[in-house]
Amino acid sequence: MYEGKNMALFEEEMDSNPMVSSLLNKLANYTNLTQGVVEHEADEDSKRKEVKGPRMGTFIGVYLPCLQNILGVILFLRLTWIVGTAGVLESFIIVFMCCACTMLTAISMSAIATNGVVPAGGSYYMISRSLGPEFGGAVGLCFYLGTTFAGAMYILGTIEILLTYITPSAAIFKVTDVAEEPEAMLNNMRVYGTCIIILMAIVVFVGVKYVNKLALVFLACVILSIIAIYAGVIKTAFDPPDFPICLLGNRTLSKRNFQVCAKFIESNNETKTTALWRLFCDSPFLNATCDDYFNRNNVTEIQGIPGIMSGVLADNLWSAYSEKGSIVEKKNQPSVAGAEDSKMGGLPYVFTDIMTYFTMLVGIYFPSVTGIMAGSNRSGDLKDAQKSIPTGTILAISTTSFIYLSCIVLFGACIEGVILRDKFGEAVNGILVVGTLAWPSPWVIVIGSFFSTCGAGLQSLTGAPRLLQAIARDGIVPFIQIFGHGKANGEPTWALLLTAGICEIGILIASLDSVAPILSMFFLMCYMFVNLACAVQTLLRTPNWRPRFKYYHWTLSFVGMSLCLALMFICSWYYALIAMLIAGCIYKYIEYRGAEKEWGDGIRGLSLNAARYALLRVEDGPPHTKNWRPQLLVLLNLDNEQLVKHPRLLSFTSQLKAGKGLTIVGSVLQGIYLDKCTETQKAEQNVKALMSVEKTKGFCQIVVSPSFRDGISYLIQSAGLGGMKHNTVLMAWPQSWKQTENRFSWKNFVDTVRETTAAQQALLVAKNIDLFPTNQERFTEGNIDVWWIVHDGGMLMLLPFLLRQHKVWRKCKMRIFTVAQMDDNSIQMKKDLQMFLYHLRLNAQVEVVEMFENDISAFTYEKTLMMEQRSQMLKQMQLSKNEREREIQSITDESRGSISRESYSSPLSIVQDAQALMTNDYQEEEAQLIHDKNTASRSAPAAEASVAAAVPEKVHMTWTKEKFVAEKHKNKDSNVSGFKDIFNMKPEWENLNQSNVRRMHTAVKLNGVVLNKSQDAQLVLLNMPGPPKNRKGDENYMEFLEVLTEGLDRVLLVRGSGREVITIYS
């Protein structure tokens, strides 16, 4: 108990709502734990002790890590080649597009990162909490794959620098034939790459702290290298370095196997051939047979780096794309074409190793601008993350964009085009091309780039397993949960093994130019969703969206998202489709199998907004007949444990709906809501669990009401929202309505029937619901029989069609029965009904059953007598509960004995009696007519329309207005001679209510006919007669329905709403 007196008013709530004074310390010292999430709060205090005080500022914590991650292998190994191939202008466009993409993404990321605390997990956390677990998991795994493949790319860059520029002699696979050299290089990459990845994995496993300590060393190497490039550019203005290039005609020659750039030299007044001569001719003598192009063209030597003042920029402005295996040629250089058939395979030309085009270069270049998330990943270690992340990230992108764009212009202005297009520096003795420009020595760049790629590879192998571990620990992707485990200190051992394995796939691809577009896809997809997350949150204007970073707008996010998507397809349309397919598969997997998480994500908010918009657009009125489908309100009964009594009702619902339309599953608890809160929640959980098992897609609504009867009324009146309201009520037949402890169940049932009619809603009553099939059962044969007695909107036709869409009922055949009286033309009726079904596009077998007038049997009188006696006893006898039960049981037994002794007479009756039973809630005297036997023959639909005419709503199917009028004003002469036989009348029968006798007569005869035809049917659908207008006969109404459906296994009583639900029109 709270002992203070100042806050006595709140003392009872102190357990659940703590004092602000005690909470402020926790809120203010919040680090990187997710606030309010139950699974973290238990560990909050213990974790807070472990977390060291945040101490890093913007420069050390965000700017430098982003700089290190962005600048890297592509800058040193491929940027010069991209400039030479695409030209300065197109290269500028490529770099500008990629940098604009990352800048717009950084703006969106800054908005998300400053909208509250971002714990460890960086981009994955931001996307998953903004767009939901499905998008978060899919994009998080894509980002993980991108980071992993980035590790492979950095390792391949490391080996390329090692084997091409540092120690070419270390190659394991060596070849003499130049044509086989690329394949040998790939094999060397694979062997060395596998060794390095094992070594790096061991380093990461042993201790991440060593990797983090070396990070600044690697960053220093990168910065020194870039400074060396700028220093070299300045030096070329007044003292260009000496890097001569040898050209034969306009073709660039590789200086690997010769030193002197001449065909022959003068030595001691003697002309001697050079090593170059011997490469093109079959002998060292001057009379040797030489290559035709070699004979026709001169050998010239030009400077590879003419300098920034030379004007070479004009030659490098335009692109020079080429096919694979083309010779690198200098523009505007005189050349004489040689013979067409001259073989160039073994000649010392510089060849292009891959086909080049604009979109491919975009894919290769894009990885050089990734790494913008490095700052947000360290949010827990920053003094003020909400200030440092936007400032540091945007400054880092601005810096690197300036470096890239300036390098493009400077490379194009300083270096000869043929050297720029010489990817591996073969024309300059195998020196790294960008190294030729550097000052004081090319080795500054070579060593610096080697260490920077090593460091970037280690960073990727450190970061990727942690990202996978964060996703695994969230528990949204079940099959990767094992990767959430690690060493005792939390290091992700299993995730590291998987990362090394996936990295090995990239190593086996072995080509830097092939791996780069793959990781471009994954990074672009991640950035696209960061932009989408920001745009969605901004447009939804959710109350929680309050970023401290104010310089964002949804249009910027949208442009960034569009640019990311465009770049994906520009890079490689098939890689883009594969990446989207992978993300889509992960999304659907999480949706179906993943753990449900409620993170207050934007997609949920978007769904709510879309639902609101759609509901406002849906007309608040009945849909057109073509769009009508049963929107169900399923009324369930619960037992004392709040468990569903008839689970098969939900099975039947899912079979009828197949996930389409609206389903509301409702139930009523008797009592007062304040007392029944816990039970209501338990009931809702039980119902939702059963809905999940039965695959019933819909909503659950539990109502607490003082009386069961009122609760059902509330549900019928208020379930649904706007235009999304139910139009059909589905319930189970009250099996125990005769038992005295459930003496109100039949009253509730009858009142529910009346209320659905008043609300103009259809009603489906499933009798013997526990015999209905489960969703796992399959009927391999059998019939669904429809008994069409009166027309109340065509729902009887529609229901079997809907049921047969489900695999349980798919192989059942549909049969339609209708009844004819003695003055109807049965043959014509059958033809008309077949034509009607043909127009409705329904396949069904049609049968017209003839039911003629005959005397009321003694069995009917006896049955009616038992019913009335039972009714009177319940009303008048004031017996104890036990005595009443015994009395009722004896009456029931006597009734059953009577039924067993009485054999059914021939299945003949009067159709007007059937109509009297079905339609007595309309004008009673009109509904009980016995038509004149001299009336002309007419079709069955016209006969049934006489009932429909009494319904005020317009019917617009196949019956004309004239037929309605003619039917309505038919001769109403009564002929009651068939109702009783005075010669066989027992004394106690004379006092019976003759209306009850007629109704019982109809129920008995109709039941006999249905049994005769449909006893073996898998399901019987039957028009449900309405309850009497006089409420005194409600219990008799239940008896009529019981007799009508007696002996049938599965019955669905259908009572239409009166409006048309099926049409012949398209």
Automatic annotation (TrEMBL):
User: GO CC annotations?
Assistant: plasma membrane; synapse
Annotated SLC12A transporter C-terminal domain ranges read 763-896, 964-1066
Q: How does it sit in the membrane?
A: Multi-pass membrane protein
Extract the ranges annotated as region (Disordered). Answer: 881-902
Q: Describe the location of the Amino acid permease/ SLC12A domain by residue ranges.
A: 62-236, 355-633
Which Gene Ontology terms cover its molecular function? Answer: potassium:chloride symporter activity
Q: Could you confirm whether the keyword Glycoprotein appears in this record?
A: yes
Where, by residue number, does the polypeptide cross the bilayer? Answer: 56-79, 91-114, 135-156, 191-208, 215-234, 354-374, 394-420, 440-458, 494-512, 518-540, 552-576
* Biological process annotations from GO: cell volume homeostasis; chemical synaptic transmission; chloride ion homeostasis; potassium ion homeostasis; potassium ion import across plasma membrane
Catalysed reactions, as listed in the record: K(+)(in) + chloride(in) = K(+)(out) + chloride(out)
Compositional bias, Basic and acidic residues, is annotated for 881-896
Q: Does the keyword Transferase apply?
A: no
Q: Where in the cell is it found?
A: Cell membrane
Keywords linked to the UniProt accession = Cell membrane, Chloride, Glycoprotein, Ion transport, Membrane, Phosphoprotein, Potassium, Potassium transport, Symport, Transmembrane, Transmembrane helix, Transport
Per the record, the similarity remark reads: Belongs to the SLC12A transporter family. K/Cl co-transporter subfamily.
What is the name attached to this protein's record?
Solute carrier family 12 member 7
Organism from which the protein derives: Catharus ustulatus
